[in-house]
Amino acid sequence: MSKNEKKHSSEHDKEKGLRPNTEKGVGQFLTTNQGVRINDDQNTLKAGERGPSIMEDFHFREKITHFDHERIPERVVHARGAGAHGYFETYESMSKYTKAGFLKESSTKTPVFVRFSTVAGSKGSTDLARDVRGFAVKFYTQEGNFDLVGNNIPVFFIQDAVKFPDLIHSVKPEPHNGIPQAASAHDTFWDFISLMPESMHMIMWVMSDRAIPRSFSMMEGFGIHTFRFVNAEGKSHFVKFHWKPKHGVHSVTWDEAQKISGNDPDFLRRDLWESIEEGNYPEFELGVQIVNEEDEDKFDFDLLDATKLIPEELVPVKIIGKMVLNRNPLNFFAETEQVAFHPGHLVPGIDFSNDPLLQGRLFSYTDTQLIRLGGPNFHEIPINRPVSPVHNNQRDGHMRQTINSGQSSYHPNQTGGGCPFQAAMGDGGYAHYTEPVSGKKTKARSQSFHDHYSQARLFYDSQTEVEKKHLKKALIFELGKVGSKQIQERMIAQLQEVNVDLAEEVAEHIGVDTPVKLDKELNQSFPADGNPQDFQSGPARPSVKKSNALSMEHTKTTSIQGRSIAVLVAEGVNTATIQKLLEQAKAEGAKVTFISQKLGMIKTMDNGSLTVQKSLASSASVLFDALYLPQGTKSDELLSKSSEAVLFVEEMFKHCKSIGMDDEGSLLWKATRSAQAVHDNENAREGIITNGNIDQFLKAVAKYRFWKREGSSNIPA
């Protein structure tokens, strides 16, 4: 972190009332929460050394009471998360579109706090569950807090917020037995989905590898809904928000995800924390898709439908700034756990659309914080405090921290001199966009929301062949866990509407005959008047048939920043190429880890020494992005006799990752079935660098996966 960035962060902390890290202080006495110094924190007050404890021990009662109440209700959704501080910097003025102060001038820096999360699981679940990932950003602007609360997927399961409790209840552990945890592969979830055609687009995303990201810093983020930009003249434009990771978009395979969950269920949390500590700061660029208000109805879908996206071929993403995450939280609970996001936290120049899912979220988020954080004063918790001054007539409530002086707690008033005053628009006062609204009160859905399959088809058709293969495997796994034949058949019927070949292959593996006829109940909803409403009003004719932006294989970069490279070593290893690998990898922001049969120092071939950071017993190949095998006759011989080392190499090969080595004739490489696979099939050689060329190896690491290798050999690692 630069001096300016450190100064910026410390000033922000001071404004938010944060305490310094007292662990580094000198001469500090242990005290009670009232500031009274404590002279014995090892024993309770007793009536005699072996007598009963005495109630007047105020120190013990304060300490145990705090302990008893340390846990707050976890979030109903997004319970498991990780957070980081940073800043957002604007590239260019957006005043043509919005009067939001933090977007009006180039180079403006705004402090942010970001929380990444899974959706379905509890706080104790694994990071690598197949799930949507939350991507929530709190901007501490000079005009107040702006929360951009989104996901790593640009669409959602449902169109109307009234169905949100049903969706979450279906994916949570089943109520009769409380299982499974953090998993959608069970009857109730797929029962719900099979009866909700509007979910099919989201299902394509969740069954893709997007749902098992390699890193929080290697996934895209989306605001999901259509919002509004409003400029100083009151002109409105519709806007969709995108976060584009500078480190590229990457995932793990399902086999890796399951093994990582066993080896390190905190894998994504740990990666974020360590990357920031090591100075490999995650960076994202903020992009917007801007639509003129008069063009609202020109698309073959409804901008207010949260199950739809705007293809980038129709409206390109304009990059307007970058976000850098450069500081870890001082305290996980106080910051990451207590941070309260809300899509209704807006600043002048940004407004809502009439998206019915967004409209419901505006109520739900505040309601959730009230019970989770104990009352209406959650905005006074340091991590939630704005940097702009707060002046209003709100008083009292649970855990109130502000001490307000004066006798006026109402407005208008004369006793307080009329303060605080209302701010006119020219003084930065927030004014909602004056959109004309008319219509009958009704519980109905617009006909423009009735196409549920065209964008699901667009997503599937936009995937590469290997991505389609992984999506099919995911559906086979998930639906194979469903016990009800009827639910399986309904899902195959839904998949037929997306892609017939996809449906037939999944059906074959789960034992369902095709074609399956859609039940009448699937394509109809029943409003309050009891009359069925057709959900698919006719064949959709989408204007975009394929979009490269929807495929992760088309959104990669040449960067290796944030990657983790394993090097297998043993006594007598040759460090000639290792030193070059260390220097170049560090310069490009990648991490190199030495792994051997045991921890400690080992002697190198030139009688030097090398520190082993991980042992084969406490690590696994799935925790790394690439592998290098250096020379050394003694080292090579020792590792070739290690079954753990052989498995490490074979798993790297199976998962199509880069493998570099000084010499293809090494005993360790020859001891693996991978070497035979390369000998038998030229496709299997892709991504195997055998000439000790570090430049070539690191280029392969940047590519990350070599999918031709998948299926070219059958390595049962």
From TrEMBL:
Keywords for this protein: Heme, Hydrogen peroxide, Iron, Metal-binding, Oxidoreductase, Peroxidase
Residues reported to bind heme: R75, R115, F164, R361, Y365, R372
EC number, as in UniProt: 1.11.1.6
UniProt domain Catalase core: residue ranges: 31-419
GO biological process: hydrogen peroxide catabolic process; response to oxidative stress
InterPro entries to which the protein is assigned, alphabetical: Catalase, Catalase_AS, Catalase_clade2, Catalase_clade2_helical, Catalase_core, Catalase_haem_BS, Catalase_immune_responsive, Catalase_large_C
Domain of life: Bacteria
Cross-link (3'-histidyl-3-tyrosine (His-Tyr)): H342-Y365
Gene Ontology molecular function, alphabetical: catalase activity; heme binding; metal ion binding
Classification via Gene3D superfamilies: 1.20.1370.20, 3.40.50.880, Catalase core domain
Task performed by this protein: Decomposes hydrogen peroxide into water and oxygen; serves to protect cells from the toxic effects of hydrogen peroxide.
Protein known as: Catalase
Species annotation: Echinicola soli
